[in-house]
UniProtKB/TrEMBL annotation, chain A:
Amino acid composition bias (Basic and acidic residues), ranges on this chain: 7-25, 807-816
Ranges of residues in domain Aldehyde oxidase/xanthine dehydrogenase a/b hammerhead: 30-145
Region feature Disordered, mapped onto this chain: 1-25, 796-816
Keywords of this entry: Molybdenum, Oxidoreductase
Pfam name, any one: Ald_Xan_dh_C
Protein name: Xanthine dehydrogenase family protein molybdopterin-binding subunit
InterPro entries to which the protein is assigned, alphabetical: Ald_Oxase/Xan_DH_a/b, Ald_Oxase/Xan_DH_a/b_sf, Ald_Oxase/xanthine_DH-like, AldOxase/xan_DH_MoCoBD1, AldOxase/xan_DH_MoCoBD2, AldOxase/xan_DH_Mopterin-bd_sf
SUPFAM superfamilies recorded: CO dehydrogenase molybdoprotein N-domain-like, Molybdenum cofactor-binding domain
Domain of life: Bacteria
Automatic annotation (TrEMBL), chain B:
PANTHER family for this protein: XANTHINE DEHYDROGENASE SUBUNIT C-RELATED (PTHR42659)
Top-level taxon of the source organism: Bacteria
Location of the FAD-binding PCMH-type domain: 1-177
SMART domains: CO_deh_flav_C (SM01092)
Biased composition (Basic and acidic residues): 240-250
Pfam families, sorted: CO_deh_flav_C, FAD_binding_5
Name of protein: Xanthine dehydrogenase family protein subunit M
Keyword list, A-Z: FAD, Flavoprotein, Oxidoreductase
Record PROSITE patterns: FAD_PCMH
Origin species: Nocardioides mangrovi
Location of the region described as Disordered in the Swiss-Prot/TrEMBL record: 236-261
Species lineage: Bacteria, Bacillati, Actinomycetota, Actinomycetes, Propionibacteriales
C-alpha cells in the first residue's frame, strides 16, 4: 500500500493563508461538468410551462386539446389535475404570529397572482416539442385589478389576494426601549427637534433580479424505490425537507442532489413551483422528467430581491453625536411569501445601527403583498438595505453639521478598545477595529489629495465634478445561532455539519452540509483539513450537494459556509486526531500521554519514534493490530451550532466623476479595506470581494426590475435589465485588516456578501457628494445619467423610471 | 430559448436567394448574420417557416474601390469593415462607429448590410450612413436599383427594400481626408445607444467647410441633422460656434421615451453630444 499521506518536507508550512488556485475551476469554467441540464436519463421526458401574461386574473378555462394532439406530447396537466400530492411552496419564516400568508400552490387552478405564474405544464418527448405545444394551450382569463405600486398596495387600494382582505402581511417591530437594550427613540427625536439635529429622508431600494449565470433546472427520477431530484439549487437539504413536509412522500424516500450549480446569489435559496411541478408530474406518469427554464422565464419568475421604501429619522446633538435612529420600512413581498420572505428585511433589523453607538433605536417593517414576482434573499439579504440606509444618513448628517463624513463616523463609531460591544439591538460585536481599516483605506485612496481636487473642481466650475463616497459598513454573518433563530420564529436551525473520512490509502474524504454553488468550498475546505490533519492539500476531497453523501446540512447562504461549516469541519477533524491517538500509541508502544501530534505525525515525546496519521488510517483499515476496546476506524463527524454571529466590517471609499452636462458617471477609484478576520485563501477572498463590489455597484448604477402599469415586467431580458460586464468596471484596490472572530477556532468572519453590502452606499454617496453643492441631497437608485441630470437641474431625486423597453427585436425586420 | 421549427436554405448566389425568396414569400426570412434575427426566433417573437441564409454568397462580401465611392458588400462582417483600410481612408466615420458597435462577438458574426436592413433606429450604422450620404443597392428579380440614404430608412424596422428584394451593397461617397467622430452615449458598454451622434467634417484651415451629421435613436429612423450641417458650414471649429450650431440637432426629431431616458433628456443629449462629436471630428 502506498502511504503518500505525509506532507512533503519542502511543502509550505501552512495551507491556510495561501493563494491556492481553485480545485473546481477547470470544470466550472470549461463547463465540462455535470450541470442539472446535462443529465440524460433513460426514457426521460421534458416539461414546458405555460405562464400567465396577466398580473392578476381569474382562470376561466384552459383548453389543452390542441397541445395534447401536438407531435410527441405525452400529456398536458393543469392545476385541476392534481390534488394534495402537488404540495405547496412554503414560507419557513412567519415573522409574526399573525402574518397573513396566501397559500402558494405551484400550479393554481383558479386565479393567477403575477405575470409569469404557471397555469399548465406540457410533457413531451423533447424540450423543443414541449415548448412548441405550450404555445397551443388556450387559456382564457378574466383580468382582475392588480396591486402593483408598493405604497398603493400598503394602503389596500387594490387587493393582491381578494380573499385575504388586506395586502398587509406582517408588521415586525423592534424597539430598544421596549427590549431594554436602549432608550426611547421618540424621546431622542423630540429632544433633537428642540435642541439638536433631525435628519428625515425616504430612500428607495429598487427591485433587483439575482440573475445567476445558470438558469434553474430540475430533473426528477421516480423510477426507484427512493425518488431522486436533481436541482440547480443552493439548498438541497432544505428542499428535501420541504418536499417531504408538503407532498406526502416520506423524507427517507427522497434523495436530492445539487450537482455543480452555476451561481445563486440567494436566487436559488428557494423551493420553487417548477421543482414541485416536476416532482408531481414525474410521480404521476412514473417517468423521469426534466425542466430547464429559459433566461426569459428566469428573469420573469425566479424570485427577485430588495424592493423597499425606507423612511428614516436620525436624531443627533448639534455636534453630530447621534442620539436615536428610527427606521420605518415598507417591503414588497410580491405575490407570495417566499421561503425566507419577510425574514429578509428582518435580517436587516439589527444592522441599521451599524458600527455606531446609538443610544436609542426603533425598527418597524411592514411587509406587503403585490401582484408582482415574489421577492426573497438576494446577496446580502436585508443587510445591504440597512447599510445603505445608515451610511447615506451619516453622509447627510455630516453635511448638516458641516464636517467631513469620515469625521462624523469616527465621532460615533465603536472604538477598537470597546470590544466586545453590545449594541442597541442587543447583539454582541466580538471584535473589530474601524480606526485601523479606515486609516489604511484613506492612505490607499489618497483621500486628502482627492478632496483637494474636488475643491478645485468646484471652485473652477468644472463641467466634470468629483465626489467621494464613504461606507464604513458592518454586517452580521455566519447564519446563525439556532437559539436566536428560534426566538425569531424561523422554521429551522442554523447549525452546520461536516464529516471526515480517513480512507485506507491515507487520502481524506470530507463531506459538508454547506452546498457550494461557485464559492470555492472544495479549495478552502481542503486547505483547512490539510492544515488540521497535516495531510497534503491534493489528498483531500470535498463532497457536498447530495443528501445521500452529506446527509445532514443547512446549505449555503448568508456568508455561513466557512464560519459555521468550517468550524464543524475543524471539530470533525479534531475528533479524527483524538480517535487516531490511542491507535498510534498502541502501534508505537507508547503511552497516549506521551504522544504529540503535529504536521500530520504522532511522535513519542523525547524519542525519534513516530507515525503519520495516514499510516494510522491504513492500520485501522487492515485492523490486524489495534488496541482492545477501540473501534477500528477514524471517521468522525461534527455538528456545530454557532454561539454568535460574526461581524465583518470594512471601510470602502469611492471616487466618482459626474459629467454635469449629461449626468454621465465615471468611476475614478475604488478602495476597500475589509476586516473579515483570518483569511483561508486570499485569492478566493479577492474574487468574492471583486464580484461582490460589482454586484453592489450595479444596484447603485445599473440594475432595476421595472414593471409597467399592467404588471408586465418591462426589464425582462438582458437588453433592458442592465448587468455590468468587465467593460463597465474599473480595477479595485483591495486590502484587509485583521481582527479575528473570537467565536470560532479559525477566527474567520465570512466574506460572501461584504462587497455587495458595502459598495452600494459608497457609490451613491460619491455621486451625491459630487453634486451636493448644486443643491442635490439624493439621487434615487439606480443613479442613471438621466436621474443625475434631472436632480442637478430640478428638485427631487431624479424621478421614476419610464416603464417602456427599447424595441430592438421587432419580428418584422427585413434582413438581419 | 428554443426557436419554433423552420426550414433552412443557404443559396450561393443572389439569383438563387431571390428565387428562394420568390418561392416562399411571406413565409421566409433572410438571415444576414443573425445577430438580431436569432434572438427574435429564440424569444419566439416570430416563427418564419423558411430561413434564407445569405452567408454563403461570396459576391456579397468585401470592400472595393469604385472611383468616387467605396462599395461595401452587404454580407461583410462588421469586424472586417472596421479593419478595412479603404473604409478608414475614405469613410473614417464608419470605422469610428464600428469600433463601438455591440461587442466583439457580434462584430464578427453580424454584417454591415444585415444591420442596416434591420433598420433599428438605435443601431450604430444608420447615422453614419446618413451623414455620409450613402446609397443602397437593392436587387430584385427585375434587376437592380439604387436608393439614397435619405429614402432608404422608412420607419421603425422598415426600409425601402421590397419583400422580394435583397440589399446587396452599400455605396459610400468618398470623404477622403474628412475628420470623423462617433459619440455614443450608453449606461453599460454592451447596450444600444441611448443617443449617439455621427459627425464628419471637412476642414479648411481652422474652419469647417462641410459637415455630415447623423443621429442615432432620435426618432423612428436614423436622422440626418441637416440643420446642424447648414449651420456649421463656414464656421470656425470653436466651442461657441459649434455650440450654437448644435442647438439645431433636435430639428425634426421625435425621440422615444423608455427605461433609459425620456424624450426631453434625449433631446438635451443630442445637442450636447452633437457639439462634442463635431469638435472631436474637427480635431478641436
Amino acid at each position: 500500500m502506498t502511504a503518500t499521506q505525509e506532507r512533503p518536507a519542502d511543502a509550505v508550512e501552512r495551507e491556510i493563508g495561501r493563494d491556492r488556485r481553485r480545485k473546481e475551476d477547470q470544470r466550472l469554467i470549461t463547463g465540462r461538468t455535470r450541470w442539472t441540464d446535462n443529465l440524460q436519463l433513460p426514457g426521460m421526458l421534458h416539461l414546458a410551462m405555460v405562464r400567465s401574461p396577466f398580473a392578476h386574473a381569474t382562470i376561466t378555462s384552459i383548453d389543452t386539446s390542441a397541445a395534447q394532439d401536438a407531435p410527441n406530447v405525452v400529456t398536458v396537466l393543469t392545476g385541476k389535475d392534481f390534488g394534495e400530492e402537488l404540495g405547496v411552496c412554503i414560507n419557513a419564516w412567519p415573522i409574526t404570529p399573525d402574518q397573513v400568508t396566501p397559500v402558494h400552490s405551484p400550479l393554481p387552478a383558479d386565479r393567477v397572482s403575477f405575470a409569469g405564474e404557471i397555469v399548465a405544464v406540457v410533457v413531451a418527448r423533447s424540450a423543443a416539442e414541449a415548448r412548441d405545444a405550450a404555445e397551443l394551450v388556450d387559456v382564457e382569463y378574466d383580468e382582475l385589478p392588480a396591486a402593483l405600486d408598493l405604497k398603493d398596495a400598503a394602503a389596500d387600494t387594490v387587493l393582491a389576494h381578494p380573499d385575504l382582505g388586506t395586502n398587509k402581511s406582517a408588521l415586525w417591530v423592534f424597539d430598544s426601549g421596549e427590549a431594554g437594550t436602549g432608550g426611547n427613540v421618540e424621546d431622542a427625536i423630540s429632544k433633537a427637534r428642540d435642541d439638536g439635529i433631525v435628519i428625515e429622508r425616504e430612500y428607495r431600494q429598487q427591485r433587483l433580479i439575482p440573475a445567476f449565470m445558470e438558469p434553474r433546472s430540475v430533473v426528477v427520477d421516480p423510477t426507484s424505490e427512493q425518488l431522486t431530484m436533481w436541482s440547480a439549487t443552493q439548498i438541497p437539504h432544505i428542499l428535501r425537507f420541504a418536499l417531504a413536509a408538503t407532498t406526502g412522500v416520506p423524507e427517507s424516500k427522497i434523495r436530492v442532489i445539487a450537482p455543480d450549480v452555476g451561481g445563486g446569489f440567494g436566487g436559488k435559496l428557494q423551493v420553487t413551483p417548477e421543482e414541485w411541478i416536476a416532482w408531481a408530474v414525474a410521480r404521476r406518469i412514473h417517468k423521469p422528467v426534466k425542466y430547464t427554464e429559459t433566461r426569459s422565464e428566469s428573469l420573469l419568475s425566479a424570485h427577485h430581491g430588495r424592493d423597499q421604501w425606507q423612511k428614516l429619522t436620525l436624531a443627533a446633538e448639534k455636534d453630530g453625536t447621534v442620539t436615536g435612529f428610527k427606521v420605518e420600512l415598507l417591503a414588497d413581498l410580491g405575490a407570495y411569501v417566499a421561503i425566507v420572505g419577510g425574514g429578509v428585511p428582518v435580517l436587516g433589523a439589527f444592522m441599521f445601527n451599524a458600527i455606531y453607538k446609538f443610544p436609542a433605536y426603533h425598527f418597524a417593517c411592514q411587509t406587503v403583498l403585490t401582484n408582482k414576482t415574489w421577492t426573497d434573499a438576494y446577496r446580502g439579504a436585508g443587510r445591504p438595505e440597512a447599510t445603505f440606509g445608515i451610511e447615506r444618513m451619516m453622509d447627510e448628517l455630516a453635511a448638516e453639521v458641516g464636517v467631513d463624513p469620515l469625521a462624523i463616523r469616527e465621532k460615533n463609531w465603536i472604538k477598537h478598545d470597546e470590544f466586545p460591544f453590545t449594541t442597541v439591538c442587543g447583539l454582541e460585536y466580538d471584535s473589530g477595529n474601524y480606526e485601523a481599516a479606515t486609516a489604511r483605506a484613506k492612505e490607499m485612496f489618497g483621500y486628502d489629495e482627492l478632496r483637494a481636487e474636488q475643491m478645485a473642481r468646484r471652485a473652477s466650475g468644472d463641467k466634470v465634478q468629483l465626489g467621494i463616497g464613504i461606507s464604513t459598513f458592518t454586517e452580521m454573518c455566519g447564519l446563525a445561532p439556532s437559539r436566536v433563530l428560534g426566538t425569531l420564529d424561523y422554521g429551522a436551525g442554523g447549525w452546520e455539519y461536516a464529516s471526515v473520512r480517513m480512507l485506507a490509502t491515507g487520502k481524506v474524504e470530507v463531506t459538508t452540509g454547506a452546498s457550494a454553488h461557485g464559492q470555492g468550498h472544495e479549495t478552502a475546505f481542503s486547505q483547512i483539513v490539510a492544515d488540521r490533519l497535516g495531510v497534503a492539500f491534493e489528498d483531500v476531497e470535498i463532497l457536498h450537494g447530495d443528501t445521500q453523501v452529506a446527509h445532514r446540512g443547512l446549505d449555503t447562504y448568508g456568508s455561513r459556509s466557512l464560519v459555521v461549516g468550517g468550524e464543524a469541519l475543524v471539530r470533525a477533524a479534531d475528533k479524527v486526531i483524538e480517535k487516531a491517538k490511542p491507535v498510534a500509541a498502541h502501534l508505537l508502544e507508547a503511552s497516549v500521554d506521551d504522544l504529540e501530534f503535529s504536521g500530520g505525525r504522532f511522535t513519542v515525546r523525547g524519542t525519534d519514534q513516530g507515525m503519520g496519521i495516514g499510516e494510522v488510517a491504513t492500520a485501522v483499515f487492515a485492523a490486524h493490530d489495534y488496541p482492545e476496546g477501540v473501534e477500528p476506524q477514524l471517521d468522525s463527524d461534527a455538528t456545530y451550532d454557532p454561539v454568535n454571529f460574526s461581524f465583518p466590517h470594512g471601510t470602502h471609499l469611492c471616487a466618482m466623476e459626474v459629467d454635469t452636462e449629461t449626468g454621465a458617471l465615471t468611476m475614478r477609484k475604488y478602495v476597500c479595506v475589509d476586516d473579515i478576520g483570518n483569511i483561508i485563501n486570499p485569492l478566493i477572498v479577492s474574487g468574492q470581494v471583486h464580484g461582490g463590489l460589482v454586484q453592489g455597484i450595479a444596484q447603485a448604477l445599473w440594475e432595476e426590475a421595472v414593471y409597467d402599469d399592467s404588471g408586465t415586467l418591462v426589464s425582462g431580458s438582458f437588453v433592458d435589465y442592465l448587468l455590468p460586464t468587465a467593460a463597465d468596471t474599473i480595477s479595485f484596490d483591495i486590502d484587509h485588516t485583521t481582527s479575528p472572530s473570537t467565536t470560532n477556532s479559525l477566527g474567520t468572519k465570512g466574506v460572501g456578501e461584504a462587497g455587495t453590502i458595502a459598495s452600494t452606499p459608497a457609490v451613491v454617496n460619491a455621486v451625491v457628494d459630487a453634486v451636493r453643492h448644486l443643491g442635490v441631497n439624493d439621487i434615487q437608485m439606480p443613479c442613471t445619467p438621466e436621474r443625475v441630470w434631472r436632480a442637478i437641474n430640478g428638485p427631487g431625486a431624479g424621478g421614476s423610471t419610464t416603464a417602456d423597453a427599447m424595441p430592438h427585436f421587432d419580428g418584422e425586420g427585413e434582413q438581419a | 430559448m428554443i426557436p419554433a421549427a423552420f426550414d433552412y436554405v443557404a443559396p450561393t448566389s443572389v439569383e438563387d436567394a431571390l428565387a428562394a425568396l420568390a418561392e416562399h414569400g411571406d413565409d421566409a426570412k433572410i438571415i444576414a448574420g443573425g445577430q438580431s434575427l436569432l434572438p427574435v426566433l429564440r424569444m419566439r417573437l416570430n416563427a418564419p417557416e423558411w430561413i434564407i441564409d445569405l452567408g454563403r454568397i461570396e459576391s456579397l462580401r468585401g470592400v472595393r474601390d469604385d472611383g468616387d465611392a467605396i462599395v461595401i458588400g452587404a454580407m461583410t462582417p462588421h469586424a472586417v469593415v472596421g479593419a478595412d483600410p479603404l473604409v478608414a481612408e475614405h469613410a473614417l466615420l464608419i470605422t469610428k462607429a464600428v469600433e463601438h458597435l455591440a461587442d466583439a462577438q457580434v462584430r464578427h458574426r453580424g454584417t454591415f448590410g444585415g444591420a442596416l436592413a434591420h433598420a433599428d433606429p438605435a443601431g450604430d450604422l444608420g447615422a453614419p450612413a446618413r451623414a455620409l450620404g450613402a446609397s443602397f443597392v437593392i436587387q430584385g428579380s427585375g434587376g437592380t436599383r439604387t436608393v439614397g440614404a435619405d429614402d432608404f430608412f422608412v420607419d421603425l424596422f422598415e426600409t425601402a427594400i421590397g419583400e422580394d428584394e435583397i440589399l446587396t451593397e452599400v455605396r459610400v461617397p468618398k470623404h477622403t481626408g474628412w475628420g470623423a467622430h462617433y459619440e455614443k452615449f450608453v449606461r453599460v458598454a454592451h447596450q444600444w445607444p441611448i443617443v449617439a451622434v455621427a459627425a464628419t467634417v471637412r476642414m479648411e484651415g481652422d474652419a469647417i467647410a462641410e459637415a455630415g451629421i447623423g443621429l442615432t435613436n432620435m426618432g423612428s429612423t436614423p436622422i440626418r441633422a441637416s440643420g446642424v450641417e447648414d449651420a456649421l458650414a463656414g464656421q470656425p471649429a470653436t466651442e461657441d460656434a459649434v455650440h450654437a450650431a448644435a442647438e439645431r440637432a433636435t430639428d425634426g426629431t421625435n425621440p422615444p421615451s423608455d427605461l433609459n431616458g425620456d424624450a426631453d433628456y434625449r433631446s438635451h443629449l443630442a445637442r450636447v453630444l452633437t457639439r462634442r462629436a463635431v469638435l472631436a471630428a474637427a480635431g478641436a
